[in-house]
Amino acid sequence: MTGPRPPGPKARTPLGHLLAFRRDVVGFLSSVAAEYGDVAWFKVGPIGVALLNHPDYVRDVLQTNHRNFLKGRPLQLARRLLGEGLLTSEGDVHQRQSRIVQPAFHAERIQAYGAVMTDCAVRWSAGWSDGATLDMLSEMTSLATAIAGRTMFHWDVASTVARGIGSALTDAMSLFSRASIPFAELLLKLPLPSTRRFYRAKARLDAVIYGLIAERRHETGDGDRGDLLSMLLLAHDPQGNGVGMTDTQVRDEALTLFLTALDTTSLALTWTWYLLSQHPTVEGELHGEIDRVLRDRVPTIADIERLDYTRMVFSEAMRLYPPIYAIARQAIAPFAVGPYTLPAGTLVLLSPYVMHRDPRYYPDPGRFDPQRWSAQATSRPPKFAYFPFGGGPRGCIGQSYAMQEAVLVLATLARHWRMRLVPGHHVAFEPLINLRPKHGMPMVLERRR
Fold this sequence. Notes:
The chain is an alpha+beta fold. The protein is 48% helix and 11% strand.
């Protein structure tokens, strides 16, 4: 490193801050940002890490100079499961895949899924009963799996295939708990029980996805069932030679989109129900809007623009508990950050969780206040002070899908239900690749009417 090194906590062992990082990564990043400011430097084992905590620096990494950064270790490790999908690919491969996949997320296509989203929510909650205690993390994961299965693969909500792939993904996701361990890739070469579990889960996923692809390839007609898999199979590169994707490329994109659709949305909805249970005034405002707009009917796409407070509630929940709590990038070449020049190979961390709670951009940052997102709000944070879906050319392609699903599911379920956290339950973090509640989210259902 040339020039002065950014300030940061001093390492007292060769492991650097690995143990503190793995023990409580969210707390560690929050304390480092609070103490050392916009640029902080620390070691995780042999890896030099720069934590950047200013919107201008976030923009530089994600947008202005994005070509100087590769995706970080968690997503490099995820490549073992997801292959070269949009989440994990780089450079020309990422650009080509983005061009091919983009039409699947055109507004008209996404809006067509609205009825599927509400139908799944109605059918799922039909089995709920007043006074029952349910783990809302499990419920929202199952519901999001059903929605993703219908919109992406044309599966039925109760399909054994849909349940099986959800279970396989849960097993495969255990891989990401190793992301902060130096040389974690080597563990996949050892016959550990967790490694064997991962490869068995990956084999189950491959069998299902490749089986679907083969079935669709042999169908007659135009091949469009109205789902995302159809779009992937029919898509081609508009700037290339017109050739579509190989089976492997379709598999990688399909699995990537399925995983991100069910995991991110289910977690965000779980944290939203938790926050509503702790803030009855906000919950009352939400119910008031839903009753006023819907008048006891299931919401439709046409209602979304009038469910403004519902959208604000979800946006605020994503501020306080962003499922993507940290974004990692690795520098290809040295780069300037304020008065510092950081060397090639630096692992750069950008934390939506930390930035979203910065009092410079959010007065009383720990308060759950959906009115921050009102059109009448007196001030708005800078663009890259709020980035729950990332940003720049590698931002989440499914953002509009996730927001639509969240608003429709919230409105559908809150028409008849409120959730109360089980008394005495301790809510703690389990930050793997996403921000999860460690002990689930057990809640008691209360029927509104």
